[in-house]
Amino acid sequence: MKDLLLIILISVNCAGFSQKAISKADSLRKKGDIEAAIIMYKKTYKVSPENKKNTYNLACAYALTYQEDSAYHYLNKALQKDNSLWALADPDLFALRKDTRWVTIEKEQIEKYQKSNGKLEEPEYTLKLLSLIQKDQALNYHIDQAKKHFIKTGVIPQWYPPLGAYKQEINKNGYEDMIALIEKYGWPKYSKVGKLAADAPLLIINHHENDAIRKKYLIQIKNACLENEGSCIEFAKIQDRILVNENQLQIYGMQFRYNAERKLEPYPIKDPEYVDKRRKKIGLESLKDYLKRKINYDWTVVQKK
Predict the structure, then answer these.
(1) 260 φ, ψ (degrees, to nearest 5)
(2) Global pTM value
(3) Long-range contact list for 217-221, CB < 8 A, 24+ apart?
(4) Which residues on adjacent β-strands are paired with residue 258?
(5) Which alpha helices (H) appear in the chain, and where do they start and end?
(6) Looking at residue 23, what is its pLDDT?
(7) How many CB atoms lie within 10 A of CB 207?
(8) What is the SS3 assignment for 120?
């Protein structure tokens, strides 16, 4: 009996240590201290190698620092019982895509996903779309670090311009790849390629520098949202971005700007007391909850029905 209690106590203490260590590692990574985060993730791995979240985060941290062999080592361990497709779209793993081992990761994940969720109508299209998402979101971690530096100091770091230029090049190539895929396979739908993959064109269109591209696809994106075949969140972002770029009031509250205190706030909203009514109509959460979660902003406008 004493031995059993001792085992339980050890297990509880290890679990407590693991959770605290993971939280600390995540915090370090978020702040930009990836090397310190790696050390903390590895400490947790030694204590709890079965903790797949920690192992996956460790793989991502290695990938962000372009330590590919270590990243693959832990990624394979993390994905052993993972039947999702997220890793194939995760921008943190972008550095691993050019390695020949990535093809094996893709094959294994798509097989596990279909075994668990049923066969996809167009698995090849799914993989290509997930690749587009990963490329579109690539470098986001590093760009976020630049934004934090600006918020803290008011100065744009000198390493941001070349990073931003490379990001624009990736986005341009992503749009061209998207057009080629749509011409070959048609507009992607949730029912054919899965929810994650079907959102790829929406992300790319939203990030395109030309509003004419957003306007070109807006009706198609809206219809997919209303038919539950596409993302209503991305539709709302694209719709609001078009309006904001034309100096009009946005209608869903999805576009943000920096205020005088260098903090994010939503651009002005049309009839703000009815914004939740509009959001609910396309299945979105309240703006108050969204803004608090997304940019830690307190939305206080009383809503009318």
Answers:
(1) -60, -25
(2) 0.79
(3) 218/242, 220/187
(4) 264
(5) 2-31, 34-47, 52-64, 68-78, 101-117, 123-137, 140-153, 160-185, 190-193, 195-198, 200-207, 211-226, 232-245, 275-281, 287-295
(6) 85
(7) 19
(8) coil
Mean predicted lDDT score pLDDT of the chain: 90
Residue 22, pLDDT score? 78
- Tell the residue number behind the tokens 């934004």, with chain if given: 147
**Separation between Cα atoms, residue 146 and residue 31, nearest integer Å:** 11
Best CA proximity match to 89, nearest among 101, 73, 106: 106
Taking CA atoms, 159 is separated from 52, 65, 71, 166, 278, in Å, by: 34, 16, 25, 11, 40
Model confidence over 181-240: pLDDT tens digits?
999 999 999 999 999 999 999 989 888 888 999 999 999 999 999 999 999 999 999 999
CB 18 within 8 Å of CB 47 = yes
Report the Cα–Cα distance between both ends of the chain, in Å, rounded.
Answer: 61
Q: Tokens 């299945």: give the residue.
A: 283
Tell which residue, 229, 194, 230, 50, has the closest CA to residue 113.
194
219-239 as b/e, with b when 16 or more CB fall inside 10 Å?
ebbbebbeeebbbbbbbbbbb
Crossing angle of the two packed helices 140-153 and 160-185, in degrees rounded to 10: 140
Q: Which residue type is seen at 305?
A: K
Q: 123-127, 135-139, 157-161, 249-253: which range is least confident on average?
A: 157-161
Residues 65/34, Cβ–Cβ less than 8 Å:
yes
Instruction: Give the tens place of pLDDT for each residue, 18-67.
Output: 678 778 888 888 888 999 999 999 999 999 999 999 999 999 999 999 99
Task: For residue 231, give Cα distances in angstroms to 7, 128, 149, 220, 227.
Answer: 47, 18, 32, 11, 10
Residue from 298, 246, 139 nearest 287 by CA:
298
Which residue(s) pair with 256 in the sheet?
Answer: 266
d(CA 89, CA 108): 14
Q: Kindly report, residue by residue over 75-126, the tens digit of the pLDDT.
A: 999 999 999 999 999 999 999 999 999 999 999 999 999 999 999 999 999 9
